[in-house]
Amino acid sequence: MSQKQTVAFHTLGCKLNFSETSTLSRIMEKEGFEKRDFTDTADVYVINTCSVTDNADKECRQLVRRIQRKTPNSFVVITGCYAQLKPAEIASIPGVDLVLGAAEKFNITEHIKNLTKSNDPAKICSCDIADVTGFNASFSQHDRTRTFLKVQDGCDYNCSFCTIPMARGKSRSDTISNVVANANHLALEGVKEIVLTGVNLGDFGKGAHGDKLHEESFLDLVKALDAVDGINRYRISSIEPNLITNELIAWVSNSDQFMPHFHIPLQSGSNKILGLMRRRYKRELYAERVALIKELMPHASIGVDVIVGFPGETEEDFKDTFDFIHSLDVSYLHVFTYSERDHTKALEIKPVIPIHIRNERNKTLRNLSYMKQQFFSQQHSGTKRPVLFEAYNKEGMMEGYTDNYIRISTPYRAEWANQLIEWTI
């Protein structure tokens, strides 16, 4: 395998996966591999998978078939959540050579060195998720103007619809000193914006092996990063409503570096469904958090995750969700259609909602999201806000985001790339 010199990556799923793929790329480039675009011919293809929805599973299989048709002699490596949950299923896909579980993904070069092409089933390097310990810091670099910095991994919650604890293990996190060191490194590299990512970000502080009792907290981390020179912007990615504290909201409201932008998963506006989902809050708490954010930062953007078609969700429950979200001063929604995942408690809940009803509810909430987004943008029409523009030239256009996450598109100007520009909305 030593003669193989080119590698291409494809990422499915969340921003955490993107940060890890970027780190895997740097690991392999240090070992002498030349990175190629996934659409190009490469000696090794690495697919970093997701398992949150059934579509991610299907997409993985489609990508492998595409590689097989294009370059049947290339090595195909599958890692990520799907690889941890169903290694044997992936190994049986024709064309897959290596399956790396959660504990082995960052040892990828060692495994590839010993890989040979054969007609035998794929080699599986995985272990029981309970045995996964340690924390691998990751960040995306050179892919975009914004960098995704992983500070936490795994989850100790057991939401009835979710496979992530089975795919990523218990809650673990980096140390504040390591995160600050990574932020300083990224500042020297010219990064202007860092998005803090994790599986359960607000649970930061359990240490690399998940055995510490929050000797460091997420608020402590935020305060430490606020003092780092050279980073203009931080964003907090998804954070649980029960873990976004009043103190954290207050700190962000007074910070110049932390943006007035929150993404807080709701999942359902029905307390009955939240109970069935095993969520750790009721909708009243969610409403309180939104109200406080808007009180302290009227201009803040708030994104919401919501799942439709969860087992047991009646028309009345869905109407509760719609009416509740409609009443909230939020800016946009990420709407997920519930899909059955093996070994989750949700499979025991009845009745199962027919697929066509799930899809109808998804469409209804996506329309609501569009209305919320339009209203939020219109509220800021005519105001000036700083925009960080991406370097990417998209058919003569460039895009960027205001501090409060309004997307701006304008004809491409090279001198604006990776620069903060005052913009009248």
Secondary-structure map with pairings?
Layout lengths: L5 E6 L3 H16 L3 E3 L7 E6 L4 H17 L4 E6 H5 L1 H5 L6 E3 L7 H6 L9 E3 L12 E2 L6 E5 L1 E2 L10 H5 L3 E2 L2 H13 L4 E5 L20 H9 L6 E4 L9 H8 L7 E7 L3 H6 L6 H14 L4 E8 L6 H13 L4 E6 L17 H25 L4 E6 L7 E6 L4 E5 L8 E5 L1
Parallel strand pairs: 1-2, 1-3, 3-4, 4-5, 5-6, 8-11, 11-12, 13-14, 14-15
Antiparallel strand pairs: 7-8, 9-10, 16-17, 16-19, 17-18
Helix pairs in contact: 7-8, 8-9, 9-11
Description:
The protein has 425 residues and is α/β, with parallel strands linked by helices. It folds into 4 domains: 6-127, Rossmann fold (3-Layer(aba) Sandwich), CATH 3.40.50.12160; 135-256, Transcription Regulator spoIIAA (2-Layer Sandwich), CATH 3.30.750.210; 260-379, 2-Layer Sandwich (Transcription Regulator spoIIAA); 384-424. 33% of the residues lie in helices and 21% in strands. The protein has 13 helices and 19 strands. α7 (176-188) packs parallel to α8 and α8 (218-226) runs parallel beside α9.
Distance between the termini: 53 Å
CATH top level label of the largest domain? Alpha Beta
Largest sheet: 6 strands, parallel
Low-pLDDT segments, ≥5 res: none
Helix share, percent? 25-40%
Looking at the structure, the CATH topology of the largest domain is: Rossmann fold
Label the CATH architecture of the largest domain: 3-Layer(aba) Sandwich
Shape: globular
Which class do the helix and strand fractions yield? Answer: alpha/beta
Strand order of the largest sheet: 2-1-3-4-5-6
Task: Name the CATH superfamily assignment of the largest domain.
Answer: Methylthiotransferase, N-terminal domain
Number of beta strands:
19
Count, helices: 13
What is the count of structural domains? 4
